[in-house]
């Protein structure tokens, strides 16, 4: 007798009937938390104190996820999102929460996670570093999507939990000078004969002008390049074409690199497409100033800056006269950091390339360290923190873009004889759940 396979139902994805739930708090990713049948339910878009109508979309052993259908009783902290793309775009996911409440939530989340996982309370909770609530991004990468049927190329951001591109005409968090470019830029891209060869588009507001970088998979025609140059001239921007290997062709601007400077007017950092920079310029300046103040580097001291990038912290630290050693995992950024130090007239800073997730015990730059700064990616610096046993700097500033990895790494740091002296929120990304922070650890005497 023939036997036919019958797939078992996927119970984790079964949809429920409508439920009315009371939201009690937000998680660190900005989702509302409710409870049903003894399990936590995560609800994107719901706020604490609200009663909401939802439908369960995913059920696991210990938690569920639900889709918000209706807010039955709204929080007093709920506001109308300013961006017309809020419901579709994958960014700016806390626009529905009052800005002061956003910062209160983020600060509380930071303290709670470190307290819970590292079993530590800071001696001082510092004032939040913040600046503008809107139009603060000096850099953004937009996606493109070519429709073979309509021959139209869409320019925008990825939709939430999707690879679809949401076409936008403006962006409420992008620097205004960049946001106003979007309609004309999208129109111009659709005039190109080689528009199928376009990838992402990077917009940057630098101290020396606005830059538009177009990722291209094939060489554009001279006619297309002329159109782009005309756009550049009309809007007073510098346009570059970037190929598969990362090489850039300037269509105008005579090969000029974007840069940003610091308040001392002597220190400036050039950067290239693909180099990481902090997107909120004003908050970055305040963040660097606080880090330098907390570490207070002195002449005769040796300061180690791990995950140093193009020298964002290294160069300002070196201005105080200490010997600074910056270490970075991306070779191109190490080379850029060296050029930045030279161009800023700093001879007391050196840069090295190293895999900071590997064993560092034999690295030539390790040596004596008086103070340390680390600014890792979201994964944190767990492996690098094992070197503290050997280095024992008397002060360590940890700049974090992920409170969960900061909490985990804090536990390692504290076990090696340190105490948490200060911690504070850095609101680098208003209107989003993303949480930047800074913590100061000092070696116990």
UniProtKB/TrEMBL annotation:
It catalyses: uridine(1939) in 23S rRNA + S-adenosyl-L-methionine = 5-methyluridine(1939) in 23S rRNA + S-adenosyl-L-homocysteine + H(+). [4Fe-4S] cluster binds at residues 83, 89, 92, 171. Its EC number is 2.1.1.190. Keywords: 4Fe-4S, Iron, Iron-sulfur, Metal-binding, Methyltransferase, rRNA processing, S-adenosyl-L-methionine, Transferase. S-adenosyl-L-methionine binds at residues 278, 307, 312, 328, 355, 375. Residues 12-70 form the TRAM domain. The active site is at 401 (nucleophile), 401. It is an enzyme of class 2 (transferase). It holds the Pfam family TRAM. It comes from the Bacteria. PANTHER family: 23S RRNA (URACIL(1939)-C(5))-METHYLTRANSFERASE RLMD, RNA M5U METHYLTRANSFERASE. Catalyzes the formation of 5-methyl-uridine at position 1939 (m5U1939) in 23S rRNA. Belongs to the class I-like SAM-binding methyltransferase superfamily. RNA M5U methyltransferase family. RlmD subfamily. This is 23S rRNA (uracil(1939)-C(5))-methyltransferase RlmD. It comes from Shewanella sairae.
